[in-house]
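Sample entry follows:

_____
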Amino acid sequence: MEMQEGFTVFSLLKRAVTMAPDKEIVDPFRNVRQSYKETYERIIGISNSMLSIGISKGSIIGVADYNTLKFVELLFASSLIGTIIYPVNVKLPYDQLLYTIKHARVEWLFASKDFIFLFKDFTKEKIISIDSNDTKITYDDLVSRKLVKEPEIYVKGSDPYSILFTSGTTGLPKAVMYTNEKTVHGAIGMVHQLSLYNSPSSLKNNDIILGLIPYYHLWSWGSLFHATYLGAKYVTSGKFEPIKTLEIIEKEKVTWLNAVPTMMYMLLSAAKQGQLNGLKTLIGGSPISSNLAKKLKESGVSFASIYGGTDMLAISITIIPANTNIQSIEDYARVYTHPLPFVELKVVKPDGKEAKVGEIGHLWVKTPWLPGEYLNDLENTKSSYEDGWFKTGDIAMIIDDYHTIRILDREKDLIKSGGEWIIPSIIESIISEVSGVDLVAVIGRIDEKWGERPIALVKGKGSNLKENIISHLRSASTQGLIPKWWVPDDIVIVDDLPLTSTGKVNKKVLKERTKW
C-alpha cells in the first residue's frame, strides 16, 4: 500500500530524487552538502527514529533554527510521518514566542544552540538539540538509527502539515494551520507564475536557488519546495550576514534568491562592483522604494515583487503582460503584481460595493490554499474570513483588465487628516528617491485641528538631507504626484528605525517610541 497519497510535501522530495538525484542541497552555515538522494535516505532514518521515541502522526513539533540542512530534513520528515511542524519565529518578542509555543500546543522541540536558551521552561526531556550534546536526545542520535524503508504511516494531502504564526505587529500573533496539499498548491502556484510567464524573476530548473527568507516565514516563501519540484540545486542561508551571504552567492554560483527590501539594501551596500550582476530576486514583505529599484538596476539585478502573507500564502507576483507599453520594468515591478493561477480577488469599497478598475478599497482574496480560519481563534476568524474570502486588511486598487494589483498600504497605517485618507507608502516612495535616504517611515501625529497629520522619519546620510527631502516633496506636489496637503508637517532624521521580524519598519513600535 502506498503510504503517501495525493499532494504531500514529501512527494516533492521524491520527485527531486526521481528527476535530479545528484543535484545538491548545500548548507554553507554548517559546511555540509548532500544530494537529493542522500537527503531522502537520511530522512527515512530520521523519520523512523522520530517514531521510535514517541513522535508520531499528529504530534506537533517546533523547530528553532536558522535555514539549515537539518531544518530541511525536518520539513520533509514531518510530512512523511504526518507530524505537524511549527517553524518557530525566533525573532518574536520573548513573551510572544512563548505564547506561540503554548498556542500551537508544541509537544517536542528541536532547537539549535543559538536558540535553545529561549525554551528553559519547556519539558527538558522533549527538547532535541540540533547541533550540540546539551540534551538527552540529540539530532545526531536520530540520524544514527538508519533505516532504509519508508515508515508505514498513511499520510494524505488533506492531513495537517504545518502551523505558522503572523508577526504580531498589531497584537498577539495569530496561528494558521496548513495541510500538505494547501502547502504544495501554494508553492506550485508560485513556480508556475515564475516559470511559465514573463516575470523579471523567472525561475527554471537550472537555477541555483538561495532561500534568504527564514523558514518561519512561509517556509522561506516555499523556496525549498520550488527547488524540489523543479529538481534545482538549493542553498540554505544559515544566519543572514551580508558579507557571508555574498561569499555564498559567489562560491555556489547562486542565480536566484528571495529577500525583503532591507536584506537587499544590505547586500547592495556590501557588494563589490559587478558582484551581483545577473542575479534574479523575488522581493516582498514591504514596499520596494524607487531608490532600491534604481540601485538594483545599476547592479545588474532583476527583480519581481511578491504579495502575500502568513494567513493567505502567496497571492500575486509581478509578470510583464503582453502588449503592455512599459517604459521602466524596474518601476513597474516594484509597484505592480499579478494574481497567481487560481487566485480570485476583489476590491471592496467602504460601502460594501465592489470597486471598479482604478477605484481604491479593501482587498479580498480567495484561493485553493487559504487556511480558512485562525487556529483556535473564533473572533479573528469571523472578522477576517467570510464565505471563502480572506479580508487582507490592505488597501489596494486593480488598475486594468489583467487584474494587475497595486497594494497601497495597510488599512491600520493610513492617516486620516481632515476626514480624508493619506496613503503613507506613496509619500515614503517619493522620499526614498532622494539621494542619501536609506529607510523612511511616514506615520500620523495627533493634530488638534485635522485629527492627524503626516510626519516622516528618515534614516539616511547627507548634510542637507532634510532640506533636499522637503524640496523633493514640494516638487512632487507641484507635478501632481501627491496633493499639497499630503506633504508631511515635519521631516525627522533618525539614527535607526525599528524593524519587525520580517524586515519591515515596525510602525507600531515607532508610534510607541514617539508617543504620537
Q: What stands out?
A: Residues 4-296 form a domain with the Rossmann fold fold (CATH 3.40.50.12780). The chain has two domains: 4-296, 417-514.
